[in-house]
Amino acid sequence: MSLPLRRVFRIEESGKAAPSADRMATMRHTELLDKLEQLAEEFRNAKITSANEAPAQVIDQGAREMIDFCKVELDEARRMKAELTSIREAIDLTKQEIAALHVSNQTGGAMHRVSDELDAIVDGTESATNTILTATEKIETNAHNLAAKLKGDDQGMALDIQENILRIFEACNFQDLTGQRIQKIVNVLRFVDERVTQMMDIWGGMEEFEQVKPAMREEELDEEAHLLNGPALPDDGGRASQDMIDALFD
Fold first, then answer.
1. Which of 55, 104, 153, 244 lies 20 to 30 Å from 73 when distance is taken between CA atoms?
2. pTM here?
3. pLDDT tens per residue, the chain (250 residues)?
4. In terms of Cα–Cα distance, which of 89, 95, 85 is closest to 213?
């Protein structure tokens, strides 16, 4: 007698199929991990390769930029050196000129000499003007007396003399104006002398100028320049007085 067939329930069928599905999932998971590992390995290899190549490119680019920067800085340094050299030469030349002024003032009293010469001009023009005015006043008196005694054309000429005498008096005002202008020049020279002294003090005083060779004036290069001194001042030694000159003709 045969046994009846037992019905297989759905739960049992799913239980038997489950192990096969798990194995498939495990295989897919393993395959996926392998792929990921392979991709990771390729990425690491690519990263190492690019890392080995990139520094060389970066270093090469950085070196070029550094060289270009150094060239620019070097050109700027050369220009600055040239400017500093020009400034230095200008300072040395200025020191030579100042030293020449100081030496001339110390040895020959240049500034004081100029002041004395200008004072002599004022005194000379004043003396000459006084002489002219004194003589003109006498001429005016004589012309007035002649005009009173003369008649006709002769009287007219005497009156013309008086008119011209007035012009002489007016022209003699030059002496006062000349004295004022000369005084302005003296004040300017004193101002320059003070500024030169202050400049020397700023650069360290006379000690800084002891080794500076003064600039020579053109007339100092002429061997006969010392003979062209012009009229002597009253206080100059060795000058011949007017009495000595007159004695030569006696």
1. 55
2. 0.49
3. 444 445 544 444 544 444 455 556 566 656 666 666 666 666 666 555 555 554 555 556 766 777 777 778 888 888 888 898 888 888 888 777 777 776 655 554 667 778 888 888 888 899 999 999 999 999 999 999 999 998 888 899 999 999 999 999 999 988 888 889 988 988 888 888 888 778 878 777 777 666 666 655 555 545 555 555 666 666 666 566 666 666 777 6
4. 95
Question: What is the secondary structure of 15-33 as a DSSP string?
Answer: HHHHHHHHHHHHHHHHHHH
228 domain residue, yes or no: no
Q: What is the token pair recorded at 95?
A: 């020191």
In a domain, 68, yes or no: yes
- Determine contact, residues 115/189, Cβ cutoff 8 Å: yes
